[in-house]
Design brief:
This protein has about 250 residues and is of the alpha+beta class. Helix content is about 50%, strand content about 10%.
Length: about 250
C-alpha cells in the first residue's frame, strides 16, 4: 500500500478549517485520553490471573472482528446468532456479572415459560383482540376461549404452542431500524394478563430471579409497576400484598 502523504490528505471539521491526518489522529488520542479518565474502572488493578483472562478475552474478540469487520455495526438480528455461537459469548455467559441495570418484570420471562402458563385451564385468549385473559372465575368477554380448547383444534399442541410463541416474540423489522420498537410496544399488551395475574407473577419472579442466579448476576434492578397485579376477582392487590410477593421470593 502506498504511504499516505500527511501534507496532502486533510479533513474538513464541521465549523473549522481543514486539518491534516496527523492533527486528526492527535485530537482523536486526546479525546480517548479524556474518555479513559472518566472510566469508572480506571483505578482498578488486575491480578496476574485477571490479566491473563483479559488478554484471552481480548484475543477472542479481536479474532471475531478480524473474521467479520462489520460484526458490531451490522443489523442486530443479522449477526445475533454469530455472537451467541461464539467462544467469547460462552466465556462471558459463565463469568460473574456485576449488575443488570434494569429488567422489566412485564417482559423478562422466557417465551416458553409464558406458553407453559397457558396450559392452566383458566387462561383465555381472543384472536381478534390478540390478548390473554386470566381468571379462575371464568371469562364472559366476547371472543375469548380457553387456550386449552383452542389448542385441541390444532393439528398438534407443538404447532399451536409455536403459533402462540410467534405472537409473543419480537421479530426483526425489514429493514431493521429504530422503528422496530414500535412493534415491540404491542408485545407488552399481549402478555400483560399473564404477567400481572398475581399467582403467575410470583412464578415469573421466581423463575427470572433463578435464571439471574444461574447467570451469576450479583445485582438486579427490577422495574415493576406497583398496582398492576390482580386476583381472580380482577381486583388489584394492595401495595403490602405486592411487596409480600417480593419478600417471599
Amino acid at each position: 500500500m502506498d504511504q499516505i502523504d500527511d501534507e496532502k490528505v486533510s479533513f474538513q471539521k464541521v465549523g473549522a478549517s481543514e486539518i491534516t491526518v496527523a492533527e486528526w489522529l492527535k485530537e482523536k488520542e486526546e479525546l480517548l485520553a479524556k474518555d479513559r479518565d472518566h472510566d469508572h474502572a480506571k483505578d482498578i488493578v488486575l491480578s496476574d490471573k485477571a490479566r491473563v483472562v483479559d488478554r484471552k478475552l481480548a484475543a477472542l474478540r479481536n479474532k471475531m472482528l478480524n473474521d467479520d469487520p462489520v460484526l458490531v455495526t451490522a443489523p442486530h438480528y443479522e449477526k445475533l446468532q454469530s455472537l451467541i455461537d461464539s467462544p467469547l459469548y460462552d466465556c462471558l455467559k459463565m463469568m460473574p456479572k456485576p449488575a443488570v441495570h434494569h429488567t422489566h418484570l412485564t417482559a423478562c420471562a422466557p417465551v416458553e415459560f409464558l406458553v407453559d402458563l397457558t396450559y392452566n385451564d383458566f387462561v383465555f385468549y381472543s384472536e381478534k383482540e390478540n390478548l390473554f385473559h386470566v381468571s379462575k372465575k371464568g371469562c364472559t368477554k366476547d371472543g375469548y376461549m380457553k387456550v386449552n380448547s383452542l389448542r385441541q383444534y390444532w393439528k398438534n399442541a407443538i404447532e399451536f404452542d409455536q403459533w402462540i410463541a410467534d405472537k409473543i416474540l419480537l421479530r426483526p423489522a425489514v429493514p431493521e431500524d429504530h422503528g422496530i420498537w414500535v412493534g415491540f410496544q404491542d408485545k407488552f399488551g399481549i402478555t400483560l394478563q399473564l404477567y400481572c395475574y398475581a399467582p403467575f407473577f410470583e412464578k415469573i419472579l421466581y423463575r427470572v430471579s433463578k435464571d439471574y442466579i444461574k447467570e451469576m448476576v450479583t445485582v438486579v434492578e427490577y422495574r415493576h409497576i406497583f398496582g398492576s397485579l390482580f386476583n381472580d376477582d380482577g381486583e388489584n392487590l394492595s401495595l403490602e400484598d405486592e411487596l409480600a410477593i417480593f419478600a417471599k421470593i
